[in-house]
Amino acid sequence: GGDDGAGVPVTAATLRCFDFSAAGAKIIASVPGVHKGRDLSLWGQEAMRHALSRESFPSHFRGSEIVGNFSSIGATSAKWLFEMQKTFSRGGVAQGEEPPGGGSRGTGVVDQQLGIGPLQLVWITVEEARTSLQGYASGASIPGRAQNLTKKDFIMTKLHRWRKSIQGGDAGAG
């Protein structure tokens, strides 16, 4: 094994070492409320489903893990998590080889769907927040209270650590 990146500070100088010229982004807002008709596909999960369904990806992304962190993990239901898992599994597998690095923004010929990948929910601990670049200020990213999760097996089986332990115990999501 080599260096997995743990402990490497992310700075502007570090990011300048990478070529992001092929990267693309789409901002999708989550807007509270009940949306109907045409507005339904403009926000949140429906907008994400629509955007990802137009993408094609290299075959090595088939069945890839879906890694997420969001507020109020403990307030979710099994049904909602499965819907989220299906949403982030949208898109197709392009025929032939695509250049590494992500989706083709709908330019590839799709011959198969990506398929639903396993869902991993990242859980940052107080200690990981304390020792992060932002310190305790990053604690706002702790997505709920542990006692709210322990009664929900459908969540507990998906929880992963924010980063590997120094001793190499938990592979986690990051």
TrEMBL record:
<comment type="similarity">
    <text>Belongs to the tyrosyl-DNA phosphodiesterase family.</text>
</comment>
<keyword id="KW-0539">Nucleus</keyword>
<dbReference type="InterPro" id="IPR010347">
    <property type="entry name" value="Tdp1"/>
</dbReference>
<dbReference type="GO" id="GO:0005634">
    <property type="term" value="C:nucleus"/>
</dbReference>
<dbReference type="GO" id="GO:0003690">
    <property type="term" value="F:double-stranded DNA binding"/>
</dbReference>
<protein>
    <submittedName>
        <fullName>Uncharacterized protein</fullName>
    </submittedName>
</protein>
<keyword id="KW-0378">Hydrolase</keyword>
<keyword id="KW-0540">Nuclease</keyword>
<keyword id="KW-0269">Exonuclease</keyword>
<dbReference type="GO" id="GO:0003697">
    <property type="term" value="F:single-stranded DNA binding"/>
</dbReference>
<dbReference type="GO" id="GO:0006281">
    <property type="term" value="P:DNA repair"/>
</dbReference>
<dbReference type="GO" id="GO:0017005">
    <property type="term" value="F:3'-tyrosyl-DNA phosphodiesterase activity"/>
</dbReference>
<dbReference type="Pfam" id="PF06087">
    <property type="entry name" value="Tyr-DNA_phospho"/>
</dbReference>
<keyword id="KW-0227">DNA damage</keyword>
<dbReference type="GO" id="GO:0004527">
    <property type="term" value="F:exonuclease activity"/>
</dbReference>
<keyword id="KW-0234">DNA repair</keyword>
